[in-house]
Design goal:
The protein contains 10 helices and 10 strands. With about 300 residues, the protein is an alpha+beta fold. The protein has 2 domains: about 100 residues, Phosphorylase Kinase, domain 1; about 200 residues, Alpha-Beta Complex (Aminoglycoside 3'-phosphotransferase, Chain: A, domain 2), CATH 3.90.1200.10. A hairpin with an 8-residue loop joins strand 1 and strand 2. Helix 5 runs antiparallel to helix 6 and helix 7 crosses helix 9. The radius of gyration is 21 Å and the shape is globular.
Length: about 300
C-alpha cells in the first residue's frame, strides 16, 4: 500500500499534536521501502514524515530511530560535524508499526563532480566520514543493528561472489580478480568501525561549503570502513579523491590499514554483483541486463588497466 501525501500529512499531525500542516510535498527521491513526504507548517518549518511500507521496513525504522537517538549527543557536541535527523514524534499505523516525523535537515545533495582538491568541501567530506568511523561501536550494537568482525565480513563478501558466480553472468576474469583479493589475508586485517552503509549523493547534504547533514541511517552496522569510501573512490574526480583521503586519514586515530583503498575499490565492484543478484532474485530482467552490461564494462576497463601496467 502506498500512502498519498495527504495521508502522510495527516499522520504528521497525529505524531506532532498542534502541528498546523500548511502544505505537503513528495521528496524528489521517493523511497522504495517507505512512503515519504515533506510537510510544511504554518510557520514555514519543514517536517519529514516516513511511514514503512511493510513489516521489515518497520523493524528497520525502529532500529534506525534507536541509533539516531544515540547519535544526537555526538552531533550536539561536535564529534559529528553535521546534523542527523532527530525523531520528534510518532504515529501508530493501522496495520502495525509506526510512522516517524523529524525536522527536515537543511542542505542540498552533494554533487561529486563539483568536488575540487584542497582544503574545501572534499576535505570536509573526508573529515565527516572519519567522524562516523570514530564513533564507539556500542551505538550500533545497542540499536540492535548488525555487527561483524573482519573475518566474518570477508566471509560475507565471499558468499556474495559465490552467489554471483552461480548466475553464470559474471565475466570469468572478474571472478578470478575478486577471488584473489578475497584470498589475500593481509587485505582483510582491519579494525571494524561504525559504518553508515548506504552513503550516496542523496544522503550527504552540503551547505556553505561544508557537510551539513547525513540522512538514512537504516543500513548502519559495525563493519569495514572501506565500504563507506567506495562510492567516493569510484565516482569522485581523482584529484578530489586524494583530498578526501588525506583529510579522512588525518581525522582517524586508526592509521594502520594499508589496504583500505584496495578494499574500497573492491566494494565498489561488488556493488555491481549485488545489483545483478537483486535483479535475479526479483526477476527484473532490465536490472539483470543493466548489471551485466556494467560488469562487462568493468571487465574491459580492468583488463585494459592491467595491460597498460604490464607495459
Amino acid at each position: 500500500m502506498t500512502r498519498s501525501p495527504l495521508a502522510l500529512a495527516a499522520l504528521a499531525t497525529v505524531a506532532l499534536p498542534g502541528l498546523d500542516a500548511y502544505d505537503v510535498r513528495r521528496p524528489l527521491q521517493p523511497g522504495t521501502d517507505f512512503d515519504v513526504a515533506v510537510v510544511i507548517d504554518a510557520q514555514r518549518q519543514r517536517w519529514v514524515v516516513r511511514a514503512p511500507q511493510h513489516a521489515v521496513a518497520g523493524a528497520a525504522l525502529e532500529a534506525e530511530v534507536a541509533l539516531l537517538d544515540a547519535l544526537g549527543p555526538f552531533a550536539d557536541d561536535g564529534r559529528l560535524p553535521f546534523a542527523v535527523p532527530r525523531p520528534a514524534g510518532f504515529a501508530h499505523l493501522p496495520e502495525g508499526g509506526r510512522a516517524c516525523v523529524h525536522r527536515e535537515v537543511p542542505g542540498r545533495p552533494l554533487r561529486l563532480e563539483s568536488l575540487r582538491p584542497g582544503p574545501g568541501l572534499a576535505a570536509a567530506v573526508g573529515r565527516a566520514l572519519a567522524s562516523v568511523h570514530e564513533l564507539p561501536t556500542s551505538v550500533v550494537e545497542n540499536a540492535g543493528l548488525p555487527v561483524y568482525d573482519a573475518a566474518g565480513y570477508r566471509e560475507r563478501r565471499q558468499a556474495e561472489v559465490d552467489e554471483a558466480a552461480r548466475t553464470g553472468l559474471v565475466p570469468a576474469s572478474l571472478l578470478r580478480r575478486w577471488e584473489q583479493m578475497l584470498e589475500d589475508v593481509a587485505m582483510w586485517r582491519f579494525r571494524p568501525t561504525v559504518v553508515h552503509g548506504d552513503l550516496s549523493s542523496d544522503h550527504v547534504l552540503v551547505q556553505d561549503g561544508a557537510v551539513a547533514g547525513v540522512l538514512d541511517w537504516g543500513s548502519a552496522m559495525v563493519a569495514d570502513p572501506a565500504d563507506d569510501l567506495s562510492w567516493l573512490l569510484v565516482a569522485a574526480p581523482q584529484d578530489a579523491v586524494d583530498a578526501i583521503l588525506e583529510a579522512y586519514l588525518l581525522r582517524r586515530t586508526e592509521l594502520t590499514d594499508p589496504h583500505l583503498a584496495d578494499r574500497a575499490l573492491l566494494a565498489g565492484e561488488l556493488a555491481l554483483a549485488r545489483w545483478l543478484l537483486h535483479g535475479v532474485r526479483t526477476h527484473q530482467q532490465d536490472v539483470v541486463d543493466d548489471a551485466v552490461q556494467m560488469l562487462h564494462d568493468l571487465d574491459e576497463h580492468t583488463r585494459a588497466e592491467e595491460t597498460a601496467a604490464a607495459h
